[in-house]
Write a structure and sequence with these properties.
By secondary structure, the protein is an alpha/beta fold. It contains 19 helices and 21 strands. Helix 2 packs across helix 4 (about 70-85). The structure holds sulfopyruvate (SPV) and magnesium ion. Magnesium ion binds near residues 53, 54, 55, 65 and 92.
Length: about 550
């Protein structure tokens, strides 16, 4: 996970932020976290700092809070926590992982990993949690003071904080011993004193705070004396309050209840509404940042261009073959025609594809395609079928008839074409079918006749389109493939809604649409091709389609 930015704190380094928390005039709070995700949640809640609890990190690893996790394993967890957040971490360093020498190395490594500070307690290695048993042995004061000095001498950032934790009250040695030790540790260079208590009320902590009188910052951990009002800690001069284990305890409860419920029910119905969504996990992990980065650094796997395929008609000229299936689903060497067409789009990385179905719509089904239905297909034409997909007409959009096959390079050329509206025109239209009357054709007249690309230096513009152009003016045949971009998609949408308003939509074809947009003064460009496409109108086409592949 990448650092999330907390606007107030992100400009300061984490060491500086830690020191500011410790020396702030008001009481400040650290929230327990034990891994990257819980650390992020603590920051998300608004905390300015994190307590990396030894108890919680051990529990999350499934081991005891008795130095069973090695210090380098703790260091690894801290690295995840720090990477996931922009606020400082005070790490629970137990007794310093050994003697002064072990602490020296630990402090050095913590500084390298941008951890704001460490708290070490005056007990013996391996430590035992303060709430277990009575009268735990305490460290020798001088030995502990040497450890503090060694730690301070090893830090590589001046603001790194070492907090000395006094366990005298926990071990039953009394207030005087607690104060004596606090004073010694303060003298040895500790940046703050953590005074711990396992009493149910906060009396001895408040008494310590009074006696101590803010000689240096004091950190407290009101786990057992949680009923003491926070205001009392404030007025008695505590610097930092640690909420020491409440995220791990909350998550254990939640996980237990969820596991038990699923075990009992053998289904997820009872838990689904009580647990966070997978989407929330993605948000916490900042998957959107990764998606952005992928756009920047990975070769693109998906084009922004959309495709709308008009596949509502039956294909009546195919007779009995289209009695149960629309022609777009006729088999072409083991795959429906529509599948072949969609694959061609996919080859050009166009994956946002909408197919408008009509005749025998239940038979039109392919994975990963948006289907829309023109249920009035029998009484309407292509424009009405396109109108069904009007809301998908946006950005760069390629509209294709559902009964055509073409080589994918044509799509590549069309995608790269400059004009706002470009139609693909076959210049070799005469050779395609020996009998020109065998079918209705969308013939075009253009500004220039076809020339090989290296001679074609001016854009070719459409001048007219229709089935009944004068034979000597015909430059080619539109293949049923067009691209609309920029403002053209919006204009097509307007034309569709005007046609609908004037009740002319039902009878309108794609040719009518192209004529209407030209009538608005829009330039329609022509991309010439030389064959390499076909449409499937009749049984002989279907035979040819087998060979086309
Ligand atoms: C921890 O959170 O690991 C602590 C605080 O050290 S306590 O568990 O109260 O000792
Ligand atoms: Mg601890």
């Amino acid at each position: 996970m990448n650092n999330i930015k907390n606007s107030e704190t992100s400009n300061l380094g984490k060491f500086r932020q830690m020191r500011d928390l410790l020396t702030s005039n008001d009481v400040e709070f650290l929230m327990e976290a034990h891994d990257g995700m819980s650390a992020r949640i603590a920051e998300e809640a608004g905390f300015k700092g994190i307590w990396a609890s030894g108890l919680a990190m051990s529990a999350a690893l499934g081991v005891r809070d008795s130095n069973e996790a090695s210090w380098t394993q703790i260091l690894e967890i801290l690295e995840f926590m720090s990477d996931a957040t922009s606020i400082p971490i005070l790490v629970d360093g137990d007794t310093g992982y050994g003697n002064f020498n072990n602490l020296r190395r630990a402090v050095n490594k913590l500084c390298q990993r941008n951890i704001g500070g460490i708290c070490i307690e005056d007990k013996l290695f391996p430590k035992t949690n303060s709430f277990i048993g009575e009268g735990q042995p305490l460290a020798d004061i001088d030995e502990f003071c040497g450890k503090i000095k060694a730690g301070k001498d090893s830090q590589t950032n001046a603001d790194f904080c070492i907090i000395a934790r006094v366990e005298a009250l926990i071990s039953g040695w009394g207030m005087d011993e607690a104060l004596k030790r606090a004073e010694a540790y303060h003298e040895a260079g500790a940046d703050g004193i953590l005074i711990h208590s396992k009493h149910q009320d906060g009396e001895e902590i408040l008494a310590f705070l009074d006696e101590w009188a803010q000689r240096c910052p004091v950190v407290i951990v009101p786990t057992t004396y949680y009923t003491t009002p926070t205001e009392d800690f404030r007025t008695h001069g505590a610097s930092v309050v640690i909420w020491a284990n409440h995220n791990i305890r909350a998550s254990i409860n939640a996980m237990r209840e969820t596991s038990a419920r699923i075990m009992r029910d053998e289904n997820l119905l009872g838990v689904e509404d009580n647990i966070t969504s997978v989407k929330d996990i993605f948000a916490l992990a900042q998957n959107d940042e990764l998606a952005e980065a992928e756009k920047r650094y990975l070769p693109s796997t998906q084009s922004d261009t959309r495709a709308i395929i008009l596949a509502a008609s039956r294909g009546a000229a195919l007779g009995g073959m289209t009695e149960d299936l629309p022609k777009c689903m006729l088999d072409i060497r083991g795959q429906p025609l529509l599948h072949r067409l969609v694959s061609t789009f996919n080859q050009e990385k166009i994956r946002k594809i909408t197919v408008v179905r009509g005749y025998k719509k239940d038979k039109v089904n392919l994975p990963s395609i948006d289907f829309l239905d023109n249920d009035r297909f029998a009484d309407t034409g292509e424009a009405a079928t396109l109108a069904v997909a009007a809301e998908h007409l946006e950005g760069d959009c390629i509209v294709a008839y559902g009964d055509i096959l073409f080589r994918h390079y044509i799509l590549e050329m069309l995608s790269e074409a400059d004009g706002d509206i470009t139609i693909v025109v076959d210049a070799r239209w005469r050779e395609r079918d020996p009998d020109p009357t065998s079918r209705t054709r969308d013939l075009v007249q253009c500004s220039h006749d076809f020339q090989p690309g290296y001679l074609q230096d001016e854009p070719v513009k459409l001048q007219s389109i229709g089935a009944d152009l004068d034979a000597d003016k015909i430059n080619g045949e539109w293949i049923g493939l067009a691209k609309f971009s920029g403002g053209a998609t919006a204009k097509i949408k307007d034309i569709l809604s005007d046609l609908s308003a004037s009740e002319k939509l039902d009878g309108a074809s794609m040719i009518d649409l192209l004529q209407a947009i030209m009538a608005l003064g829009e330039e329609v460009r022509v991309l010439y091709i030389n064959g390499h496409w076909m449409d499937v109108d009749n049984a002989s086409d279907l035979e040819d389609a087998q060979k086309f592949l």
